[in-house]
Amino acid sequence: MGRRVVLGMLGLGVAGVAVGASLQKGVNRALAPIGQIGGVLPAAGNGFRFYSVVGSVRPRPPAQYRVTVTGLVRGERSFSMADLAALPQTRLTRDFQCVTGWRVPEVMWAGVALPDLLDAVGVSPRARAVRFTSFDGVYTESLTLDQARRRDVLVATEMLGAPVTHDHGGPVRLFVGPMYGYKSLKWLGGIELTDRVVTGYWERRGYDVDAWVGRSNGRDDAPT
Fold first, then answer.
1. How many domains does the chain have?
2. 3-class SS of residue 123
């Protein structure tokens, strides 16, 4: 449910108390963590709230997982979990900040720094940006190439001291340390080098392309 639908529902509240109660239920359903909507995903005990733009996402077992790197690269390549583990590993501790206001402090992250993954495939001089796709089949995100080469941008295989769970976007997710959580795409399936920034799922719905933490997005209903 998008912001326009939610606002339309809010307009119906003047019809009466009964309609208002139904409306509040609808708003809660639109904005609540998915773990509170039909039990699709469990609630987190560490402060995270789980969201998905498509509802239920089919798990991908680590043994079957692959992330493909395509586009403006020297050679397209598919990485298994073992391939990612063979690359240099980066560990860092950073807060996770959702644009809706909640924050989980000092989350431990581990995985392959995106610059190291890009170096492993070789980036064409024509590349200017990186596009990410989720194996949920819908969610997308992008960074400029300069942003993608930051050392606090990870292809994360671990968080909170353990492998990334499916609910958190595993077995592999993106973590973009200096930006709001909607840039940290879950269920990472594809990485594409492009000649320009291709706006992602929430950017096409009015959110900032450059989502640095602390910068107002002018919106308050985007899930991470």
1. 1
2. strand
The amino acid sitting at 71 is: G
SS3 assignment, position 63:
helix
What stretch of H or E contains 52? none
Q: What pTM, to 2 d.p., does this model score?
A: 0.78
pLDDT in tens, 6-29: 334 334 333 333 333 333 333 233
Determine, yes or no, domain membership for 99.
Answer: yes
What gap in Å lies between CA 170 and CA 33, rounded to an integer? 17
C-alpha to C-alpha distance for 53 and 208, rounded to whole angstroms = 18
**Does residue 38 fall inside a structural domain?**
no
Per-residue model confidence as pLDDT tens digits over 91-124: 999 999 999 888 999 999 999 999 999 999 999 9
Beta strands in 14-89 (DSSP E): 67-71, 77-79
127 neighbors 121 (Cβ within 8 angstroms): no
- What torsion, rounded to 10 degrees, do the Cα atoms 13, 15, 17, 20 define? -20
128 within some domain: yes
Count CB-CB contacts under 10 A for residue 55: 11
Judge whether 17 lies within some domain.
Answer: no
Domain span at 153 = 54-205
When pLDDT is averaged across residues 77-104 and rounded to a whole number, the result is 96
CATH code (residue 70): 3.90.420.10
Residue 176's beta-bridge partner residues? 153
Give the whole-angstrom CA distance, residue 105 versus residue 63.
Answer: 31
Q: Which residues contact 99 (CB under 8 A, 6 or more apart)?
A: 180, 181, 182, 207, 211, 217, 219, 220, 222, 224
| 206 touches 199 (CB < 8 A) | no
